[in-house]
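For reference, the entry.
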Amino acid sequence: MAVSVEAWENLCVAMQTLMSVLNEKQRRLYLGLESIRLGSGGDNRIAAIAGADPKTVAKGRRELLSRGVSVEQIRDPGAGRPPLKKRLF
């Protein structure tokens, strides 16, 4: 099914607008859901639209399919950047 350029642009703008109000975990899960909808090659296509890393999309897809979604926290324990060491001088 061919999609017009205007429809494609509208889809991209709508996805980016929705993602702007979601937190990190919600964005990852949403992108994973869209990847599932597209099927084969969905991770790369959704990542290109959203400006995300395909690994992030794949992680969201895996979380949804494994039903391993928790509402308590956004990141897994120990995930994220390590704390910066403060200079004393």
The CA atoms of residues 31 and 57 lie 6 Å apart. The mean pLDDT is 83. The radius of gyration is 16 Å. Residues 13-66 form one domain.
